[in-house]
Amino acid sequence: MHLHHMHDSLKKTLQRDTARPPAFSTQAGGHRFWERKMTNITRRSALGIMSTGMATLGLAACGGSSDSGSTSTDSADKTYRIGVLQLVEHEALDAANEGFVAALDESGITYEIDQQNAQGDQSACQTIAAKLVGDGDDLILAIATPAVEACAGATEEIPIVGTAVTDFAASNLVESNDAPGGNITGSSDLTPVADQIRMLHTVLPDAKEIGVLWCTAESNSDLQAAMAADACKEYGMTATDYTVSSSNEIQSVVESMIGKVDALYAPTDNTIAASAALVCSTATENNIPVIAGEEGICAGCGVATLSIRYYDLGYTTGEMAYEILVNGADVSAMEIRIAPRVTKEYNAELCAVLNIAIPEDYPVLAFIIFFVLFFHCSEQRIQHGFHCRDPFAMRIGFNCFPCAKLAVFHQYASSKS
After folding, report:
1. Parallel/antiparallel/unpaired status of strands 342-346 and 304-308
2. How far apart are CA 310 and CA 132, in angstroms?
3. CB-based burial label for 98 (10 Å; 0-12, 13-18, 19+)
């Protein structure tokens, strides 16, 4: 089957099986289930056009309008300007972005959206935030804590909805999560850290020394690391922080864990998420299993996770944006919302590589990962020209680590068929 036909087939399957499907993209970016535009885009859903038409017909038939009819028509006719600042491109934040856009599309409003990505650069966040404010947007979506902080520093007037933020109050973005008190509200991606550590103990009962990998540039990761340390004590485990200041330090820091930890915990940290493949290569080569804070990290380097759905989180944020733009909701009184559900999942291919047995009631991520790796694998063959010399991959006859992972999955799938 042609690659693009396989993409279409998988997309239809995911849309049929889930009301709000997650977003998946390859790291190389060559094949996508959705494509974000970095320029102004006008989106008009069929529902929005129909609403406008019906309102107009209603006014014509009545020969006039009531106050409520006029309000409905004004809302339908208005084109909202929405700016988006996303900290960095990786699976979780991409999914939140997609969920937000889907909620707006389904609401029926007409809007222009300016998608901006800071590529993990803090100074770029500030520059982009200033641009969005200067453009006079009606609302700004900020994805991840540094993005929200940049927007908060740029305006106290334009409504800001943030998402993929662990704790708005702890990050001094709002007065309280129940009553923000300013121009910022949004949705929290705080995961059940204690339950994730309990999962680690269940899946890896012999693990005693746990490394916690996070980036010091992300204040919310510090909070999760502290929660993980407390939870580890309850199960007789010792947690040790292994921190990086940027993605450039990840490989050396993971290498420093060798012989010192039995397992690794990776919270919802954007720097770690964006470099999950690097974590995977080093950790897996040295038989260090990773319990992930969310499914995107789990797909890249983890053996299991208890994860929120970032698509759902973004969708919730889009619903909040609609309430603000159309219904005039008071941002200062809109409590911070949380993800509607969490799901336990495991990465069958990495479990097979590390010879880890997972409880039977865990759903498998392997079906999705198979397709993601299939496309990524093809791109890596072209990009690397077989010159990528990953030690783990070469042990089983491949130069590229994603190719090796794909081969392992084939072996796992064959043993289950």
Report:
1. antiparallel
2. 24
3. buried
Q: 161 near 101, Cβ under 8 Å?
A: no
Amino acid at 64: G
Distance CA 137, CA 388 (A): 45
Give CA–CA dist 223/238, Å, rounded.
17
Q: What is the pLDDT of residue 32?
A: 27
Amino acid letter for position 270? N
**Cα Rg for the chain, rounded, in angstroms?**
23
The number of residues making up the chain comes to 417
**φ and ψ at 81, to 5 degrees?**
-100, 120
pLDDT for 75: 60
pLDDT score for 165? 95
C-alpha–C-alpha distance, residues 377 and 276, integer Å: 15
Cα(298)–Cα(304) distance, integer angstroms: 6
The residue whose two tokens read 């999942």 is 345
CA distance 403 to 188: 35
DSSP one-letter code for 364: B
Write out the two tokens for 366: 């392997």
Which of 226, 174, 219, 218 is CA-nearest to residue 337?
174
Tell me the residue type at 58. G
**Residue ranges in 209-269 assigned as alpha helix (H):** 219-234, 250-256
What value, to the nearest 5°, has the Cα angle with vertex 79 and ends 73 and 83? Answer: 145
Beta bridge partners of 18: none
Angle at which helices 366-384 and 3-17 cross, to 10°: 150
Report residues of the chain scoring pLDDT below 50. 1-72, 366-417
What is the reported pLDDT for 273?
92
- Residue pair 109/65 in contact by the 8 Å Cβ criterion: no
Place of tokens 């680690």: 200
Residue 77: partners with Cβ closer than 8 Å, 6 or more residues away: 52, 110
Q: Tokens in use for 267?
A: 């919270």
Q: What is the pLDDT of residue 220?
A: 84
The answer to whether the predicted template modeling score (pTM) of the entire model surpasses 0.70 is no
pLDDT tens digits, residue range 370-383?
A: 333 433 444 443 34
DSSP annotation of 335: P
Q: What is the DSSP letter of 355?
A: T
Crossing angle of helices 401-416/366-384, nearest 10°? Answer: 150
Of 284, 270, 259, 200, the C-alpha closest to 235 is 200
